[in-house]
Inverse folding.
C-alpha cells in the first residue's frame, strides 16, 4: 500500500510546492513508484512539472466534485517517471462547492482507495489554507511533512496548523502522523536562519529532518522550465539536498 504524505503549511511561500515536486522526483529517481497530487487551486505543481493546464481534461476538481475515478485524472510525466494528478483554477470553486456535500472531508481518501496499491508514495501538495482541501488531504494522509521557511515569524501560525492536525486525528483520521519537519530556504550567512533552525529543533526535536534545504537559485528556476531539479540540473546543490531528503524519507519507514 502506498504511503500518502501531505506536504502542508497554511503559510504561502514556505516551499510546499518546491518540496512536493522535488521530493517526488527524487523518490522516483531512487526507483520508487510515485503519484504526485496537486490540490492547490494555484496549480503550481501542475505547471512546475511541465503539464500545460490548457491540455488538462480531468483534474483533481473532477475527482472531488464530479466523482471522476482517480485513474482517469492521472497524467504520466515520463521524463520525471512520475504520475501526476493536476489542479486547475477550477479547483478554486471546490472549497465552496464541497460545503453542502455529505462526507466532504473524506472525498480524497475514498478516491485514493482504488489506486493506492499501485504506488510506493503518494505526495499531496496542499494549498496555503486550512480549508476543506487541506482537510481532505490530512484525512487521506498517513503522515504530513511540514516545510518551515528559515525566515522571520517561521513558527508563527504553526500552533494553528498543529491544532488542525490534532482535530483531524481526533475526528477524521486517528492514524495521522507527523512524518517530518523540513527547514527550507536556509541561508548559512545569516544569524536569522541559524536561529530559526535552533528554535524549530527545540520545538519539534527529532521530528526535524537532518536534511536542511538551502536557498538555491536553480530550485527557483526549474519550475519555469517545467522540470524538477533532478531533471533540470542534477548536479546542483538543490538536486543533491532533495535526493538526500528522499533517502531520509525512505529510511524513516
Ligand atoms: P509554497 O508552495 O509553500 O507557496 P513554493 O514552493 O512555491 O512555496 O516556494 C515559494 C517561492 O520560493 C517559489 O518562487 C520557489 O521557487 C522559491 N523557493 C522555494 N524553495 C526555494 C529554495 N530552497 N531556494 C530558492 N528558492 C526557493
Ligand atoms: Mg504551493
Amino acid at each position: 500500500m502506498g504511503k500518502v504524505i501531505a506536504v502542508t503549511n497554511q503559510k504561502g511561500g514556505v516551499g510546499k510546492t518546491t518540496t512536493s515536486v522535488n521530493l517526488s522526483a527524487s523518490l522516483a529517481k531512487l526507483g520508487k513508484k510515485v503519484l504526485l497530487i496537486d490540490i492547490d487551486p494555484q496549480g503550481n505543481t501542475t505547471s512546475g512539472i511541465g503539464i500545460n493546464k490548457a491540455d488538462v481534461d480531468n483534474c483533481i476538481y473532477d475527482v472531488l466534485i464530479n466523482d471522476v475515478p482517480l485513474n482517469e485524472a492521472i497524467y504520466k510525466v515520463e521524463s520525471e517517471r512520475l504520475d501526476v494528478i493536476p489542479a486547475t483554477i477550477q479547483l478554486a470553486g471546490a472549497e465552496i462547492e464541497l460545503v453542502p456535500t455529505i462526507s466532504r472531508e473524506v472525498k480524497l481518501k475514498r478516491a485514493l482507495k482504488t489506486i493506492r496499491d499501485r504506488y510506493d508514495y503518494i505526495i499531496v501538495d496542499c494549498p496555503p489554507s486550512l480549508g476543506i482541501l487541506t482537510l481532505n488531504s490530512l484525512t487521506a494522509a498517513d503522515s504530513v511533512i511540514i516545510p518551515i521557511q528559515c525566515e522571520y515569524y517561521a513558527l508563527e501560525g504553526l500552533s494553528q496548523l498543529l491544532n488542525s492536525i490534532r482535530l483531524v486525528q481526533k475526528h477524521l483520521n486517528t492514524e495521522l502522523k507527523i512524518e517530518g519537519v523540513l527547514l527550507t530556504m536556509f541561508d548559512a550567512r545569516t544569524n536569522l536562519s541559524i536561529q530559526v533552525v535552533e528554535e524549530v529543533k527545540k520545538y519539534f526535536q527529532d521530528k526535524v529532518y537532518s536534511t536542511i534545504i538551502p536557498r538555491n537559485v536553480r530550485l527557483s528556476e526549474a519550475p519555469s522550465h517545467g522540470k524538477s531539479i533532478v531533471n533540470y540540473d542534477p548536479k546542483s546543490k538543490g538536486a543533491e539536498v532533495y535526493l538526500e531528503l528522499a533517502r531520509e524519507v525512505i529510511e524513516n519507514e
